[in-house]
Amino acid sequence: MLQRLHDEMPTDRFTLGWLMRSLHKRSFGIIMLLLALVAIAPGLSVVAGLLLMIPAFQMIEGKSAPVFPRRIAERSFPARRLAAVLQRSVPVLGYLERVVHPRWHTPAAATKRLVGAVVVILSATLVFIPIPLSNEVPALVIALISLAYIEEDGVLLSIALLAAVMVLAVAMAAAWEILAGAKWLIDLRS
Q1: H or E segment and range at residue 63
Q2: Phi and psi angles of residue 14, each rounded to the nearest 5 degrees, phi first
Q3: By mean pLDDT, which of 50-59, 157-166, 172-181 is the weakest?
Q4: Mind giving me the DSSP string for 6-38?
Q5: What would the 3-class secondary structure string for 156-170 be?
Q6: CB-based burial of residue 51 (10 Å sphere; 0-12 exposed, 13-18 middle, 19+ buried)?
Q7: What is the pTM of this model?
Q8: What does the alpha-carbon distance between residue 64 and residue 109 come to, in Å, rounded to a whole number?
Q9: Four-point Cα dihedral 142, 147, 150, 152, nearest 10
């Protein structure tokens, strides 16, 4: 599907609206996968994290396909960037598709809502913890969740959700330590 998307992509610029119309049924998973791959790049994690929250909230609401605000959906982006992400991703995902396949069927509506909720929380770590290189692990976990969701692989989804819990536990522990350190510094000044 991503290879077809690459082949049909406009030559100079594309819009998110075009991207969503091109993806049809698997639009939530593919959009989240692409945004997660973009979030891995240094400097883009905050923007990608914010954009990831839009389809994730819509999944929680139970919408059938993602809908971005018109201003975002019609804004054009350089096609060369998407082409580069797709070109690097297609061979890796082609390999992964040999391993990832439908198993452990999960209820569609409940799975969609759970995936949306976990992606919202992980996206928040991308937005609110803009420390260099801190975006890679949550973005990779979102990509793994998206891949499992696209392929309807309940086994991989379970593994990815466990990884999300571990990432969030580490983020919470780090936030707790930062708050404790700040309190200690404030107490020193008093």
Answers
A1: none
A2: -135, 165
A3: 172-181
A4: HHHS-SSEEEHHHHHHHHGGGHHHHHHHHHHHH
A5: HHHHHHHHHHHHHHH
A6: buried
A7: 0.78
A8: 10
A9: -110
- Tell me the one-letter amino acid at 113: R
Q: What is the CA radius of gyration of the chain?
A: 18
Tokens representing 73? Answer: 């959906």
Q: What is the pLDDT at residue 138?
A: 92
Q: pLDDT tens digit string along 16-67?
A: 788 777 776 678 888 898 889 888 887 788 888 898 999 899 999 988 888 8
pLDDT value at residue 100: 80
Contact predicate 6/90, CB 8 Å = yes
pLDDT band of residue 130 (cuts 50, 70, 90) is low
CA distance 124 to 121: 5
Question: For the chain, what is the largest distance between any 2 Cα atoms, rounded to a whole number of angstroms?
Answer: 64
Contact criterion met (CB below 8 Å) for 28 and 119: no
Q: What is the per-residue burial (b if ≥16 Cβ within 10 Å, else e) of 54-78?
A: bbbbbbbeeeeebebeeeebeeeee
No. of helices (H) and no. of strands (E), the chain: 9, 2
- The structure tokens 């993806």 sit at 23
